[in-house]
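hey so u asked for the seq, here:
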Amino acid sequence: MVMNKKAFNVDVNLEVAEKFSGQVEDRGYTKYRAVEAALRAFIALPEEAQVKLMSNEMEPEIVLIDTFREKALEYDLSKLSPAQRVKVISLAKEAAKSVSRKK
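ran it, structure tokens below
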């Protein structure tokens, strides 16, 4: 299967670029795959969340957690298997721990 590709080159904030490069290197990811995954995640977000992320009015973690909470309210967890429910709840708790409580 031949996949169509398009070069994607942008300048980003130095601090963000260094954090990204550090995480990619530490975790053994390929940069282009990590960037593509981030783009796919952004595309999947509701427009309101995209606008908040681009405006820098809120920390990205807060925008994402708020978005996931809203979507979770819309989603019926009873449709998930017990293992899937445990995984979703575990991920939500882990995400909540990583958010700074400073205002």
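The chain has a mean pLDDT of 82. Residues 12-44 form one domain.
lmk if thats what u needed
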